[in-house]
Design goal:
By secondary structure, the protein is mainly beta. The chain has 7 helices and 24 strands. Helix 4 packs antiparallel against helix 5.
Length: 524
């Protein structure tokens, strides 16, 4: 088995190309989704704030290639409102998200591929990507230094069976050196890791069918999912790097969209599920409003009531014995003027009107809000983001550990976790379509408690006690660059300098932590 994992890394491209018979049956792949770390999303965010298009599409990620291409056309039609760098990037992105028609040769106006196959009405593309990361960590605390190398090789396959039905698949394998950790196969503790000599190997994959039939859209398989109004961080379904097996349905109208999904969460000893639905409204060109609910359940087989997309889960949870972890929420995006947006997310883990909203522990609330200002003071290459996030104690927790709001041992919601708040400001600078700089500052306070805790009246009382007792305080400064040296070849770095007060809730444990990574990425 160890030899297999070592060989798989060395021969991954060939293995990915031969591993499935579906490779020989594909087509014109525009229903495939685009990973949320792709550079096109920052461009779409900026264009939406400039009101170059009016849509609720960015509230639900990842987007399909067809959706992104449609938005790019709307942006290019109004390119006079963009900086030169953003206009050039939009043209490059349009090429990347344009596939040739069947029988049409590939040109400079299309994306480049390692392999393209057409047969009848079907067409598929196969691509590779390689990323080399070098990470380091230095700190003033009595902790070991880290120098880690991560080499990742991935293969991407996408296609269309018909004009309405397609698929996407992506697999990757990462070789990690310098991280002396034991093997672990418990998905509830995070990433699966296999040890081979001085190296360890991790892997991940997605694969799904996706279709679009008029106003109805579906995705069935393993993929990522995030929703909310937040730009970089979200309260309900965050921009996670862990996919899940799911069935997702969408019904789109011009001013209304309904979304439903049912997914499998990680679990070793018990089967766990996440289900949710969401309504997005477009109230004119300036306001997007949404309401949603999610629910974690487990310790039993799939529940038929939760497989019904239009049943209210808050009601059905009561009808099924009040056994599950139900949450409610809403978010708002308001465009004050072209170039300035405000956003707000409210997440309600639990609520009782019989007790004080601000102090009773059972009223578990979280808020995330801020502003996005594009071209401040008419400097078109700049944008500014400011955000404040507050999460009450006990948010995301449950008295049954199997129903905690987690996937692969991490929060499905905010990475802050319960009993914390944060102020964050980011300045982005794009002087050229190939260069994007980021300067950021964040101040975070974190009190006692984690997402895996269970409340006890005897030990914890009935009050929230937000940030009571010893509090860890972190001031964080960051600098990052992403540089495209030629098309689909990227170099960059991300450096973070943090000063911690009362690190890990230890009074007087103060000092600096310096961390960062340098990377090279090739997509072809």
């Amino acid at each position: 088995m160890r030899i297999f994992f070592q060989q798989r890394f060395l021969h991954f491209a060939l293995a990915a190309a031969l591993s499935s018979p579906i490779l020989h049956l594909t087509a014109h792949a525009q229903t495939a989704t685009v990973p949320v770390d792709h550079q096109v999303y920052s461009l779409l965010q900026k264009a939406e704030t400039l009101q170059l298009f009016s849509s609720y599409e960015l509230r639900l990620l990842p987007l399909s290639r067809t959706t992104i291409r449609t938005l790019l056309w709307q942006i290019i039609d109004k390119k006079e409102h963009l900086s030169r760098a953003d206009a050039a990037l939009a043209r490059q992105m349009l090429q990347e998200f344009t596939d040739p028609q069947i029988g049409e040769p590939l040109t400079r106006d299309h994306d480049r591929h390692i392999y393209r196959h057409t047969e009848g009405d079907m067409q598929f593309f196969f691509d590779l990507d390689f990323t080399q990361n070098f990470r380091f960590l230095r700190q003033d605390f009595d902790m070991p230094e880290e120098n880690i190398s991560e080499s990742t090789l991935g293969g991407d396959l996408r296609g269309m069976f018909t004009k309405n039905l397609g698929f996407g698949a992506h697999a990757l394998n990462t070789m990690v050196r310098g991280k002396n950790e034991a093997e672990q196969f418990n998905v509830d503790r995070g990433t699966i890791s296999i040890r081979v000599g001085e190296s360890s190997f991790t892997d991940q994959a997605t694969g799904y069918l996706a279709g679009s039939f008029g106003r109805f859209h579906f995705l069935a398989g393993r993929d990522y999912l995030s929703w909310g109004a937040g730009l970089d961080y979200r309260l309900s379904l965050r921009l996670i790097d862990r996919p899940m097996d799911m069935l997702r349905l969408n019904f789109d109208l011009k001013k209304l969209r309904f979304t439903w999904f049912h997914g499998n969460l990680s679990g070793v000893d018990v089967q766990r599920y996440l289900v949710g639905h969401r309504l997005d409204f477009r109230l004119g060109k300036s306001i997007n409003l949404a309401f949603y609910e999610t629910l974690v359940y487990g310790n039993r087989d799939r529940e038929w009531s939760y497989l019904n997309p239009i049943l209210p889960y808050h009601v059905m949870e009561h009808q099924l014995g009040d056994l599950d972890n139900n949450t409610l929420g809403g978010d708002l995006v308001y465009f004050l003027r072209p170039g300035v947006r405000a956003f707000l997310e409210v997440f309600v883990d639990d609520f009782s009107s019989d007790y004080p909203l601000g102090t009773y522990w059972g009223n578990k609330l979280a808020v995330n809000g801020g502003f996005h200002w594009v071209a401040p003071f008419h400097f078109s290459e700049f944008e500014l983001k400011t955000t404040y996030t507050r999460i009450d104690p006990w948010v995301y927790t449950h008295n049954d550990s199997a129903l905690s709001y987690t996937h692969y041992g991490e929060s499905i919601g905010s990475q802050l976790g319960p009993n914390a708040d944060r102020v964050r400001a980011v300045i982005n600078y794009q002087p050229h379509h190939d260069s994007r700089w980021e300067i950021r500052y964040a101040y975070k306070r974190k009190g006692a408690g984690s997402i895996f805790d269970q409340h006890s009246y005897e030990l914890n009382g009935k009050h929230k006690n937000f940030l009571a007792g010893i509090v860890e305080k972190t001031s964080e400064f960051g600098l990052a660059l992403r540089q495209q040296f030629k098309r689909d070849v990227f170099f960059g770095f991300d450096l973070t300098f943090s000063y911690l007060h009362n690190r890990a809730l230890q009074a007087g444990a103060d000092g600096w932590r310096r961390e960062g990574f340098f990377y090279m990425q090739i997509r072809y």
